[in-house]
Amino acid sequence: MNYDYNTQRKRMALPEYGRNVQKMVDHIKTIEDRDERNRAAKTIISIMGNLNPHLRDIGDFKHKLWDHLALIASFELDIDSPYPVPEPAKFVEKPKQIPYRQGDIRYLHYGRIIELMIDAASELEEGDQKEYLTTLIVNQMKKSYITWNRGQVADEVIIANMKLLSRGRLKMTEGVRILEVKELIPPVKRKPAGKPYNKQQNKPFVKKKGYSRH
User: Fold this and answer.
1) How far apart are CA 145 and CA 107, in angstroms?
2) How far is CA 211 from CA 63, 65, 214, in A?
3) In a domain? residue 33
4) What's the domain count of the chain?
């Protein structure tokens, strides 16, 4: 008896459509009549759409299905597709490298995000918006410092760090206010300890037959 193991089967380009769709695509490649081959391809497109209804939320839903059909057929299916057949290289492109900012972080407890925020705020013209962002930044710096070092910190230290990181472009103005530690990190509320439950004390008195208090 011959067994059909998955490891012996042809590798599927898009496994989410299943082995049966792969077999149907392989079959229509053998159909000689072009009109019949086109009809079979449209039938498979309908099946593929029903198998993956989540694709309906994607723009150009039909176009995506025809591209997938071409990929499943290894770009060897000669049919009258309503869309241009995609280039095989489109499906093997390496992802574009995300540009990361190079260089060391000056203060690890503030992190890279704070440095980026400082750079962005420093580019703004003097005014309410820059003052508002400076307030957010300086308070986040204080919160990060306390969280990282688990201790108190003088506001003068935070202000000096901000001036250093911004190269003097961010300044403390009248509208910038540094919050107190309890405002930045509210204390954890502890549940009050409950009184122990005394079963004997709370047990209701039940008068028994033949018993009298007097």
Assistant:
1) 10
2) 91, 88, 9
3) yes
4) 2
Structure tokens belonging to residue 86: 């995609």
Q: Tally the residues of the chain.
A: 214
**Domain hosting residue 14, numbered range:** 10-91
Task: State yes or no: pLDDT of 63 exceeds 80.
Answer: yes
Query: How far are the Cα atoms of 34, 119, 146, 156, 209 from residue 171, in angstroms, in the given order?
Result: 74, 13, 21, 12, 87
Report the Cα–Cα distance between both ends of the chain, in Å, rounded: 95
Distance CA 43, CA 78 (A): 15
User: Please, which pLDDT band fits residue 1 given cuts at 50, 70 and 90?
Assistant: very low
User: Does some domain include residue 199?
Assistant: no
Count of C-beta atoms within a 10 Å radius of residue 83: 13
Q: Is this model's pTM higher than 0.90 or not?
A: no
In a domain, 198, yes or no: no
Query: CA torsion angle for 3, 6, 9, 13 (degrees, to 10)?
Result: 160
User: Does residue 193 sit within a domain?
Assistant: no
For residues 76 and 140, state if they share a domain: no
80 and 42 within one domain = yes
